[in-house]
Write a structure and sequence with these properties.
The chain is an alpha+beta fold. The protein is built from 14 helices and 16 strands.
Length: 478
């Protein structure tokens, strides 16, 4: 079996394959045997044929990276695979007269990694030497290449095309043209998004200024690009197939179950913004995708938190009910506002501009001191009041929101409708008031729009973006 054949089965989401040379590591114990691998809706499963008593008892209720098992094996005698996210998911036992007892332990995991064959694992230099060719001087920094495929995703950005030469016995030679490509070029690496039917293929190619210091660092750079594509396009950037080469040698191929990714309609860009009318060019430079990728490349605590919020933002778009989506977006906006206010250290600056916040803090401490100096018969009530006062910070979401607008130099006239939409939706929904209004869609668009605005400005973007998809003017320069 070839890698492409197995990948095609994963893409379809179905298939069953014989597995030999299984080595299941459960802590310090390695259990060997054979079984059968099945492509499931939410990952991969192996029915592992083992002797009863070898598999440890399932003591964990929730499985995570701290207690996952790992497995390696050979698919159909050809493909070596591994996974480090294995968890048991039930078993069946059979006892037959005259035969050894049998246990089929079901193992669930995902994604799966295919290890390269011997030929693929050898570097180009070693291959040239084995073929008797002159050995070139190895580069100071190895080249890096990634390819990944996203299922059911459309590219919003187009500036190049695929041209195919066609020869017909009657019509002669001709060329077909398909504007299905977006290219972005930079000194360190180029990338391209190519639409291939319903799928989007991502190509990453390093250049002379790219400094590959380790495989881990390469994955950080590529994952930053994936995160940038996910943010700009409004879908979770989870490829079903990812291939990685370093120094001309294939390192690994990673596959996950081939189900479409979750997406949101509130993406910051649209086809009318992202598609350049001029095609056939060598590509763009410093596109919104590149700007976002550079932000995520920092791999800091802030970028990780922003990426987590954007994941929740996209997942909220997959909710069935409009009000569930809106309530989730309200919480995400609050979380983003609090995070950025603290990260950008705006408190000191705002205090200097308005004495109200210092005065509020002094009054709060005065009231708390007064309460503590008195004797009260109902201590439970006192404790509740004191708790409320201590929780009342000097800066509410409204003040933090305005501080961020000032910091990013965003017009108050443009931003006020976004704040008012959040205020109109947040408290009623949080307190169980679910009256449907004609403004529900409009408010959701405004709330989602300001989340995109704040993230884009944080990334250093300046240009046209989609900030209110349900409004009369969905696009605006920010």
């Amino acid at each position: 079996m070839k890698e492409d054949d197995f990948a095609a089965a994963v893409r379809k989401g179905q298939g069953s394959f014989a597995v030999t040379k299984i080595a299941l590591q459960t802590g310090t114990t390695v259990i060997r045997g054979k079984g059968r691998l099945t492509i499931a809706d939410d990952g991969f499963e192996i029915d592992f044929d083992v002797v009863p008593g070898l598999i440890p008892k399932e003591e964990n209720i929730l499985w995570n990276e701290d207690n996952f098992w790992s497995v390696t094996g050979l698919i159909e005698g050809d493909l070596t695979f591994r996974s480090d996210t294995v968890a048991p998911s039930g078993h069946t036992e059979s006892w037959r007269i005259g035969r050894k007892p049998r246990l089929l332990q079901k193992l669930h995991f995902g994604p799966i990694e295919l290890l390269p064959s011997r030929t693929e694992a050898r570097s180009r230099a070693r291959l040239r030497k084995s073929m008797g060719l002159h050995e070139k001087r190895p580069p100071t920094h190895p080249s890096v290449r990634f390819e990944a495929v996203l299922i059911g995703c459309d590219s919003l950005f187009r500036n190049a095309a695929t041209r195919t030469e066609v020869t017909n016995d009657f019509l002669g030679k001709g060329t077909t043209w398909d504007g299905n490509t977006f290219i972005d070029r930079a000194p360190d690496y180029d990338f391209a998004l190519i639409q291939e039917g319903a799928d989007l293929t991502i190509h990453f190619r390093s250049k002379s200024r790219f400094r590959s210091v380790s495989e881990k660092a390469d994955w950080v750079r590529f994952q930053a690009l994936l995160n940038a594509i996910g943010f700009t396009h409004g879908f979770n950037p989870w490829p079903y197939r990812t291939q990685y080469w370093r120094g001309g040698r294939k390192i690994i191929e990673r596959l996950r179950n081939g189900t479409p990714v979750t997406r949101t309609v509130h993406k910051p860009f649209s086809e009318s913004i992202g598609r350049n009318g001029e095609t056939g060019r060598r590509g763009a430079a410093n596109s919104p995708i590149r700007i976002a990728a550079r932000f995520f490349e920092k791999n800091s605590e802030l970028t990780k938190n922003i990426n987590e919020l954007l994941y929740l933002f996209r997942e909220a778009g997959g909710a069935v009910h409009l009000k569930i989506q809106t309530l989730a977006l309200c919480s995400i906006l609050e979380g983003l506002t609090n995070l950025l206010f603290d990260e950008l250290k705006l408190e000191t600056e705002v205090r200097k501009l308005d004495s109200h916040f210092d005065e509020f803090a002094r009054m709060r401490e005065t009231v708390l001191q007064f309460i503590n100096d008195q004797e009260w018969s109902d201590q439970r009530s006192v404790a509740r009041i004191v708790g409320s006062l201590k929780a009342a910070g000097a800066f509410r979401v409204r003040e933090k929101f305005k501080a961020l607008c000032d910091h990013f130099q965003l017009s108050a006239n443009d931003m006020t409708p976004h704040l008012q939409a959040w205020e109109a939706e947040r408290n009623p929904l949080s307190h169980g008031k679910f009256k449907s209004l004609d403004t529900d869609f409009r408010h959701q668009g405004l709330i989602a729009g300001v989340i995109n605005i704040f993230v884009l400005k944080l990334m250093g973007f300046s240009g046209q973006a989609q900030v209110d998809i349900f409004g009369d003017h969905p696009r605006r320069f920010i």
